[in-house]
Amino acid sequence: MIRQKIVAGNWKMNGSKETVSSLVEGLLKMDTSNSEVVVSPSFPYLSQVSDALSASAIQVAAQNVSDQAKGAFTGEVSASMLKEFAVKYVLVGHSERRSLYAESDAFIASKVKLLLEEGLSPMLCIGETLAEREAEQTLVVCQRQVQAVIDLVGIEAFENIVIAYEPVWAIGTGLSASAEQAQEVHSAIRQFLAELSQTVAEKVQILYGGSVKASTSSALFEMPDVDGALVGGASLDAEEFIAIVKAAG
Ligand code: 13P
Fold first, then answer.
1. Fewer C-beta within 10 Å: the chain N or C terminus?
2. Is 211 touching ligand 1 by the criterion CB < 6 Å?
3. Three-state SS for 148?
4. Which residue blocks in the chain are alpha helix, DSSP H?
5. pLDDT at residue 210 in the model
6. Which candidate, 105, 9, 117, 26, places its Cα nearest to that of 63?
7. Which of 36, 94, 128, 132 does the annotation list as catalytic?
8. Is 166 a catalytic residue?
9. Is residue 182 within 8 Å of residue 220, measured between CB atoms?
C-alpha cells in the first residue's frame, strides 16, 4: 500500500513573532505536491502561522493539548480552541512531555481520546531511552506506549492517528537512528498493530524523529515502513526543512 509521506516540523519552544514570520515566508516557496507538510509552532504563534499558511497546502499542528475539554484548568489549552485556528494535528506523548512533565501513558491516551472526539488528528510520539535500548527493551516500550492508547480508543481509531517513532537518545543529539534501525522498529510497530487489524496497520503512517537532517533523510525515506519525519532543530531553518521535504519525494 502506498502511504503518503508526512514531513512535520516541531519548532518546540523557539521563535519570536519576527523569526516565525520569516520562517513561514521561506516555507511558502516550497513545492508541497509530493508529501504532506506540517509545521508546529508554539501556542502564541498558532494564529499568525495559521493565517499566513491559509492559502497554502502546509498544515498546522499544535505541540500540546489539555486532557480536559474545558473549565477551570489554568494555563491549559483545549482541543476545541485549537480547532478554531485550523489546526489539523496535535503532538501528544512527545518524550520531552513524558520525561520533563511526567506525562504517563494513560494521561497521553486521554488526550488522544479528546482530540479524536474533536476531529483532530493526534501525532502520537513513542520511543525508548538509551538505557531501554541497551536493555533490549525498545519494542516492549514502544508497544506499551501504543497499547495504552489502544486500550482507551481501540485499534480502529488508529485510522486517524499518526505515530512518530522518536528514540529519546536521538532527539537533539545529532545522533540519528540509522535507516535500518528506524525500519526495524517501524516494521515491528506495524506488525504489532496488524495483529489487531491488518487494514489499520497498512494505513497508519509512522514517522521517524530524532536528529533528522537533509543529509540523512533520503536513506530514512527509502525504508518501506518510514512514512515521513518529525523534525526538530532542522525545521527551524527553511532551506534545510525544504530539502528534507524534497527528499521525501
Ligand atoms: P531533533 O530533530 O532536534 O532531534 O528533534 C526531534 C524531535 O523531538 C521532534 O519532535
1. N
2. yes
3. helix
4. 17-27, 46-52, 79-83, 95-100, 105-117, 130-134, 138-153, 179-194, 198-203, 214-221, 238-247
5. 98
6. 9
7. 94
8. yes
9. yes
Confirm whether 76 is a catalytic residue: no
- At 151-169, the pLDDT tens digits run 999 999 999 999 999 999 9
Whole-model pTM above 0.90? yes
Round to whole Å and give the CA distance between 52 and 45.
11
State the residue for C-alpha cell 518501506: 224
Sorted by where each starts, the structural domains of the chain and their CATH numbers stand as 6-248 (3.20.20.70)
Does the beta carbon of 127 lie inside 6 Å of ligand 1? Answer: no
Cell of 5: 509521506
How far apart are alpha carbons 162 and 122 in whole angstroms? 6
Residue nearest to atom 2 of ligand 1 (CA): 232
User: In the numeric block, which cell numbers belong to residue 143?
Assistant: 508497544
